[in-house]
Amino acid sequence: MEAQQIYNKLERQFPGKVGNFRGDVFDPCLNVDAGSIVDVCRYLRDDPDTQFAVLSDLTALDLPKEDKLQVVYHLHSYSKRHQIVLKADLPREDQPAIPTMEGVWKAANWFEREVFDLFGVMFEGHSDLRRIMLPEDWTGHPLRKDYVEQEEYDGISTQRAPLVEKLLR
Amino acid sequence: MSEAAIPESEVFHTEDMTISVGPQHPSTHGVLRFVVRTDGEVIKDAIPDVGYLHRSIEKIGEKCTWHGYVPYTDRADYLAAMFANQGFCMAAERLGTTEVTRRGEFCRVIACELNRLASHLISVGTFGQDIGAITPFLHALRERETINDLMEEICGARLTYNYIRIGGVGYDITPEICAKITAFLDHFEPTIDEYNRLLSYNKIYIERLANVAVITKEEAFQYNLVGPNLRACGVKWDIRRDIPYSVYPELEFDIPVGTGEIGTLGDCYDRYWVRIRELEESCKILRQCLKMMPKGPAISKVARKFKPPAGEAYVRVEAPRGDMGFYVVSDGSEYPYRVRIRTGSFTAMAIIDKLSRGIMVADLIALIASLDVDAPEIDR
User: Fold this and answer.
1) What is the pLDDT of residues B175-223, one digit of tens each?
2) Is the complex ipTM higher than 0.90?
3) Residues 31-70 of A with CB under 8 A from B
4) B147/B158 Cα distance (integer angstroms)
5) Of A35, A108, B83, B327, which residue is 20 to 30 A from B72 by alpha carbon distance?
6) CA separation, residue A109 to residues B16, B83, B312, B373 (Å)
7) Is-contact B380 B76, C-beta < 8 A?
8) A150 CB near a chain B CB, below 8 Å?
9) Contact A107 B223 (CB under 8 A)
10) pLDDT in tens, B326-372
11) Radius of gyration over alpha carbons of chain B, in Å?
């Protein structure tokens, strides 16, 4: 199924919740309202025309210039051999939150933990939302564009002394 | 007899035991840890604890130039560095609409398939080792050593290659190296049979793997298993054939899938057997490439200051651990805006929690080995 047809289908099914379709890029993508992302994904998974059985990837983009965080879903269908990219915009400040996709695809569990860890997005209803890559008491979310590394962790400096300059002295 | 019928005084009370497997356990293939709760020999749950090898490769990508990031991609999965090179370069080429020379494409496929042989040898070798068979591991590493030597001749490095560059490959594969690769294949193909006699048809080995930790097709889709792990569930899906890239459409090769001939479809043995048969297919691909090698330059002309126009691309390559996805976003500057590496081990690791419930402790080791998870690839 062509991306344009998928979009038209979604527009009929969820009027006002989807938009900003771009079909002339490498991977056609569309924006979905953050509140209805789970319904849209469940529909895409179960509809016999789309059959998106697999969530290939779930990640996020930090866009401080547009003052938003974007959660990006790459959906893929083995049986229909098509794919689509869904994007949900969230505000950057005040703990951005979006419903969890765990109920639709189990793979979302770890993907969402990673996005929570590195971007600081809350996934409402997630069964086990803990940091996955970094220690639990780490502060900040490294993949944010304005992230500043903490100077020390557990009494260990995270900065490396300039070794060569020391030798020159 | 149901439990309720036994008088309280005669019930043998057991207590849950929590064991930490790893981070330095030999079967964990790198640095990862499981918190295992057991009742005797039976596992109640095994919670994976990852992140020991997190190096922020994705963040580093935002600080490097496009050319400068290629060596970092090597480190995403050090057993199959060539594929990460290729994935990132393909994403950059798609964004910058850069052509790859035809000889460059063949060099890429040869290097990648050699790398796949090396990676699968480690996978099946350590599989035997984890189960308790040391000898096959040594045989596998012996062959892999030869591949490392070949790689060293091709690109100067044995593990982290930095061979594939945007627009082609760093060094041409000379006819002398081609002759050496042919000689290696002549030697290697018969050893697969030897390997099968030693390990694959071994009764003890089969008993340990058949019917253990069965994954159904639906579970594989739910958890997004990819590559050999997915094919072992009977799904005939290979990125090289189904979302073709490079010169793979011109090459002839089969896609081995699990058949459940010895145990159940999608058990540990199927996952092992798919990898053994992929070794044969890679040899087939290599021989065709060596024959078809065209003349010409190995790399096309690419600007030193590579600045692809703003946009984003999601590129998949078929790595030894399955579909490796590179989601690369450009804002038109000299640096990538965002590089996301989606790896097969990450999703394979997430399914262990579910599969481990109710199996024996010894089977957990077989399960981890059969999924071929690779710690650096999980943590990145």
Assistant:
1) 898 899 999 999 998 888 888 888 888 888 888 888 888 888 888 888 8
2) no
3) 53-57, 59, 61-62
4) 9
5) A108
6) 26, 26, 25, 18
7) yes
8) no
9) yes
10) 999 998 888 999 999 988 888 888 888 888 888 888 888 888 888 88
11) 22
* Rounded Cα distance, B360 and B267, in Å: 15
- B159 DSSP assignment: S
First to last CA, chain A: 67
DSSP single-letter state for residue A16: T
Q: Please name the residues between 2 and 31 in chain A that touch chain B, using a CB distance below 8 Å.
A: 25-27
Which among A27, A56, A135 has the least Cβ separation from residue B224?
Answer: A56
Q: Evaluate the omega torsion of the peptide bond into residue B23 and state whether it is cis, within 30 degrees of 0.
A: yes
A33-75, pLDDT tens digit by residue?
888 888 888 888 888 888 888 888 899 988 888 888 899 999 8
Beta bridge partners of A69: A62, A90
Q: Which residue of B has its CA nearest to A29?
A: B312
Q: How far is B1 from chain A (nearest CA, A)?
A: 37
3-state secondary structure B44-81: EEEEEECCCCCCCHHHHHCCCCHHHHHHHHHCCCCCCH
Stated pTM of the model: 0.87
Partner-chain residue, chosen from B58, B224, B235, that has the shortest CB–CB distance to A105: B224
Kindly state the tokens that stand for B229: 């792990």
Distance CA B111, CA B125 (A): 21
* pLDDT at residue B195, rounded to an integer: 86
> What SS3 state is found at A141?
coil
3-state helix, strand, coil in chain A (%, to 5): 25, 30, 45
Give the sheet arrangement for strand B322-330, strand by strand: B311-319, B322-330, B336-342
Closest CA to B321 of B255, B225, B234, B254: B225
Q: What is the mean pLDDT of chain A?
A: 85
Judged by a CB distance cut-off of 8 A, whether residue B238 touches chain A is no
Helices B81-96, B66-74: inter-axial angle, 10-degree rounding: 160
